[in-house]
Amino acid sequence: MSYFDAASAAPLHPVARQALVAALDEGWADPARLYREGRRARLLLDASREAAAEAVGCRPDELVFTPSGTRAVHTGVSGAMAGRRRTGRHLVVSAVEHSSVLHAAETYEATEVGVDRTGRVDAAAFAAALRPDTALACLQSANHEVGTVQPVAEAAELCRAAGVPLLVDAAQSLAWGPVEGGWSLLTASAHKWGGPPGVGLLAVRKGVRFAAQGPTDERESGRSPGFENLPAIVAAAASLRAVREEAAAEGARLSELVDRIRSRVPVLVPDVEVVGHPTLRLPHLVTFSCLYVDGEALLGGLDRAGFSVSSGSSCTSSTLTPSHVLRAMGVLSEGNVRVSLPPGTPAEDVERFLGVLPEVVRSVRDQLDAPASPAAVSAAAPGGVSGASDEPALTVDSLGKRCPIPVIELAKVIGDVPVGAVISVLSDDEAARLDIPAWCQMRDQEYVGERAAERGTAYLVRRRT
Amino acid sequence: MSYFDAASAAPLHPVARQALVAALDEGWADPARLYREGRRARLLLDASREAAAEAVGCRPDELVFTPSGTRAVHTGVSGAMAGRRRTGRHLVVSAVEHSSVLHAAETYEATEVGVDRTGRVDAAAFAAALRPDTALACLQSANHEVGTVQPVAEAAELCRAAGVPLLVDAAQSLAWGPVEGGWSLLTASAHKWGGPPGVGLLAVRKGVRFAAQGPTDERESGRSPGFENLPAIVAAAASLRAVREEAAAEGARLSELVDRIRSRVPVLVPDVEVVGHPTLRLPHLVTFSCLYVDGEALLGGLDRAGFSVSSGSSCTSSTLTPSHVLRAMGVLSEGNVRVSLPPGTPAEDVERFLGVLPEVVRSVRDQLDAPASPAAVSAAAPGGVSGASDEPALTVDSLGKRCPIPVIELAKVIGDVPVGAVISVLSDDEAARLDIPAWCQMRDQEYVGERAAERGTAYLVRRRT
Asked: Which domain of life is it from (chains A, B) (predicted)?
């Protein structure tokens, strides 16, 4: 098995394992107690805080440990908003933040700042969303689904000029280096860098107004209640230091492997869109989408072929909507595959992946009776131009059919209408809203727009070629 | 070293250690993912939930894992209060609940129900505090500082009759057996039973109205956000099952050791009050207080003698007030020692403890120049009765002096006034409010009451013997 989903959870780093097992013996007691076992636990906690703070680039007394990255985000957002409640209840976030940030933002009045097709925020546009009543802004250091790195230092400078603190969710990037720039709050998650689950980091710079919400206690400066998960904290700090020592060399090596995937997948597999920024990106992560492919079937096929990857397609978990990140980018969501390589991934595993991928995609497409090749679409082009009318010459009823069927049915009939004519695709699948325009862009057809229909939505496409 | 503070954190059970280390290899992946590693993690999570639910005595779908017992309590209280917000914002708690319950209750209108001198709640009095706008009642299964077992089943029945859900904090008792009776919500903490830190339990019975507060996600039925701490969860469930198998035999053995401490400490050490219920108690926990002793010095002396215990005295941690539990019981707080024996504690360790304790106490008393013996107080009794006046014949100025100095100074002069005369002790130490009346009760002197003074408070004591 090759596990290519480090962005969900990295396998435990050997240093983390070693530190965790050692701390089970040395660090189980209550660090608040004054007896020997308690003092020993306190020493371990203090040392872990110093090591983690050094890796984050903050003072130890600015850093607390939380039970997870998600809890760090929830605590960070609610504490920062409460600390500036006199300023207002407005919050600025990017549209591609992790769901923990978006969930935390739901309590307030949030403005989501959009991204370009690579998933990148424009710092000036981000700053333009700040208002006099903005209490907090949130921008990830790098995106968890497509790997695009955000202009955090630039955004932090603009936020500082506007007097608004910036919270940076650094969950995906902290393994590779500290977050540069004048951020005010920072969050991270140990199991993303090869540390154990059960540990998040929340850094709040001195001078940032912060009022922890909900019941608190004397633990972690009153910012994270409950008995400290000390063995895991020790392992988290030790492994962060260890991955940092390897970060430059391993990052360069994995980045080269990712470049192989980025350049060769579109050659090996027809009708593929590689998404995310080609250079301003995490070293170990690449995402692509395959036309006419059902994400769940694709993941199942890759799993059987020995590869564990994740997907932002709809229908791949309990949700029926495609990933909010792909939606914000306006890119194809069907047949979406995210590959995130854990440190140490052998080059041969990536080659093996590139070897099996074409056949797995072909097999899923065959099962779905997908159009064989792009040529099939543009080849048949009888008849003349039917004028500029948006009245559909043909209606495809895809009601009740899930992604990628509506797109497949559209692709099959586009050759049946004259160039200039409009096809209406009726669909009640949320993914169609994203994938039909994306298909038009990939196929050089014109996406006219959508209209409410008696059932579902009518997506209008004009044949251009 | 003998570690006698299991009620703070029990050393890791061998089964917990074994399960944790195994789960580091098998259970690091995201249980929400559909690939092999994710499915394996999901199986471990499901099996752990089933095992823990069986030990709790609930259905697996009624139980979620939280990052700590404290977080379980916070989530349980806020979710239950929100689920019944139409009923009201009133909450009934016992005065001796764990601080996590009392902190959670601070957000609402809370009624604290008092306890008797053994720390036990009267179920009828508890039920009498229920009002038409009471949304929730909270009663611990057993007290964490003095070991007294609460009448939970009886309280649950009365709550049920009143239509109010009862939340039981079972942190201290779950190792010893399930909580009997018709509770509605239950919380617990793995590191109290020998599981790892980082895992709490929250059970919410079907039919109990519950609305999780704060941002949530798809984890743990939407009741505990953030990536599951799976290796620790696996270890928690496995160790709970293991300690339960040993509970009957080990409980009986430790209970006998506790009885030795309960009966012999007052014989070995003069001026000691053993607190907590003598029979309705946890098997492994006993607490006593020593007159004329500074809690921190006592803990330090015991630590140097090789024993790790905790204390509810003031001045033993960052707080200057005695434990709210001892205060609610109205018992002596100075020189307080809680002994809680971990499973497997050898009888010889308890004997060794009983061997060193008298000398450690004597040494602390000597340093404080404490009254040598009770006889010294009642021996000198010159003069006659000074009438029934509350006007002090003598004023002891203990302003600026911390526990146990005010009580020591009182004890030194009680023999200097005639029987029937009143001594006024001026003190600004919070512990005096508890310890001067407790001293009177132990010494058979009359506690007249307190009066506000220009500085601090005047505590009035009439010499009776």
From this structure: Bacteria
